[in-house]
């Protein structure tokens, strides 16, 4: 059987044999993949299934919820609680830690997830995704508080995302490289299509929401200005720009062809600590990017070393080709030294 025909569960079983990964992790990842397949199915009918549009409700972030935000969250909860290996779940869409129902066995794993990231793109039919991060605790956690799950990103044992784009892909790392799987509609399974994804150390593409330029810190303004100056500027080369407003799609592009994605702190987000959430956006993406040979920084330090104080806390995000991230960190250090 060649790699390209290997299904997701066959890949997991192969990793378990080769790397002695935990049987319970295999079970959990299979449940996550099933949830992503179900979400992909819920998305594809769009307006035909009357699942577009917003609800009256807001999530813990104070953001208006799309119908599909709630649908995707429910799918993750139902598909993953059944695995019998989870002690708790934390979701972008819920303000409380999710207690696994008593009818299911519990385990030491904790699943952190953003069930549908980029959901403001749903109604205009632009790619969205699901992001997940997995921690393994020493004991089944007490879900009366978040205390036991407030662990830094360096303690993740696995992370990944599903990208609901022209094709549906699942990208995963369990700490031994980054691998991509494409959903085969003929058999309803993810199949290995991208083994050992690696990011070029240099790039000529950046992604940032340019409309926020006036609020950025000086080192970010300096970096972006030099990118825009292109051949005539200090970079001496044309540097392209992209902005999809869907983190999963941006990170996937960076994994596929290099580049840097930035959602830095700015005057408007400073009081919240940034825009993107540490637990279920920044940390899992940082895990993948580092596993693929890239770098993931707040601008002043490694994202995965940020000590979490709240499960919904936000953090500045600068990730991608490692030499580019290093340059941006250098600009922050030079600015802070003045
Ligand atoms: P939504 O889930 O509210 O669409 O936010 C998506 C996101 O968290 C991330 O996926 C994007 O990179 C970023 O926000 C887009 O931010 P802008 O709205 O400033 O473009």
Provide keyphrases for this structure:
338 residues, alpha+beta, Fructose-1,6-Bisphosphatase, Chain A, domain 1, D-Maltodextrin-Binding Protein, domain 2, 2 domains, 7-stranded mixed β-sheet, 5-stranded mixed β-sheet, binds 1,6-di-O-phosphono-alpha-D-fructofuranose, Fructose-1,6-bisphosphatase class 1, FBPase_N, cytoplasm, EC 3.1.3.11, magnesium
Q: What's the short story on this structure?
A:
It is an enzyme of class 3 (hydrolase). The protein is α+β, with helices and mostly antiparallel strands and 338 residues long. It is built from seven helices and 16 strands.
Count the E strands: 16
- Let me know the average pLDDT: 94
Sequence stretches where pLDDT stays below 50 over 5 or more residues: none
Strand content: 15-25%
CATH class of the largest domain: Alpha Beta
Q: Helical element count?
A: 7
Which hetero ligands occur in this complex? 1,6-di-O-phosphono-alpha-D-fructofuranose
Helix-strand pattern: HHEEHEEEEEEEEHEHEEHEEEH
What percent of residues adopt helix (DSSP H or I)?
25-40%
Q: What is the CATH architecture descriptor of the largest domain?
A: 2-Layer Sandwich
Give the end-to-end Cα distance, rounded to a whole number of Å. 59 Å
CATH H level of the largest domain: which superfamily?
Answer: Fructose-1,6-Bisphosphatase, subunit A, domain 1
Which structural class is indicated by helix and strand composition? alpha+beta
Instruction: Please tell me the total number of domains.
Output: 2
Widest sheet, order of strands: 3-4-5-6-7-8-9
The CATH topology of the largest domain is given as Fructose-1,6-Bisphosphatase, Chain A, domain 1
Cα gyration radius (Å): 19 Å
Question: Any idea what the shape is?
Answer: globular
